[in-house]
Design goal:
single chain, alpha+beta, 2 domains, three-stranded mixed sheet, 6 helices
Length: 196
């Protein structure tokens, strides 16, 4: 991905746009058409700082394949904005205008469902990471304590703590926290960078 100088926002596409010159897939690119606050947008995202409430905005996308082949790496792209929502990104203005005319409430329902699904995935990943770190912390603290006498009550609490005990992969790692972060890294290439 080409990095623009200064602040920008990044657009991530679920369906690639083909470069007009070489045909390479473009799945993400940077823009300064909105707030330029390092925000990440997808189709269905509310655009912060859009100068257009509903309409088509012309911008440029960068093709890394063309740049590598020493060709002009920039191509025109058109953002479809519907009531401040990114409704599409097209390589041709006429397709962008057609997309704007075809947006309806069912699209809005689909975008909301997709946004909620992504939010639930991020929440699940956050809570999984938090619980893994909490388990590691408890494991480290337990290692500092002297052995407890064998009583029925201690057996119960020890068994309960063992449920949250980190895996051997983590406890034997040279950098256990790094290993936890590695295990919780994004799994899909198209998943934009974020908290974890």
């Amino acid at each position: 991905m080409f990095i623009r100088m200064g602040m920008f926002d990044t657009i991530y596409l679920d369906k690639a746009i083909a470069c007009k010159t070489c045909g390479a897939d473009i799945l993400d690119f940077q823009t300064k058409e909105f707030e330029s606050c390092m925000n990440h947008y997808r189709i269905g995202s509310v655009l912060s700082g859009s100068r257009v409430l509903s309409g088509v905005i012309k911008d440029e996308a960068y093709c890394q394949a063309c740049s590598d082949a020493k060709r002009d790496a920039w191509m025109d792209v058109y953002f479809v904005v519907w009531h401040t929502i990114l409704a599409g990104v097209e390589a041709e203005e006429c397709k962008a205008e057609a997309r704007l005319a075809s947006v309806d409430r069912l699209d809005l329902v689909q975008w909301i469902a997709e946004a909620q699904k992504r939010e639930e995935q991020w929440q699940r990943r956050f809570f999984d990471l938090r619980n893994e770190l909490r388990g590691w912390h408890e494991y480290v603290e337990d290692q500092k304590k002297p052995p407890e006498p064998e009583t029925e009550d201690n057996k119960f609490w020890r068994a309960l703590r063992s449920i949250r005990r980190p895996s051997e992969e983590i406890t034997t790692a040279a950098d256990p926290i790094g290993k936890i972060l590695e295990l919780h890294a994004p799994r899909k290439k198209e998943e934009p960078p974020g908290l974890f």
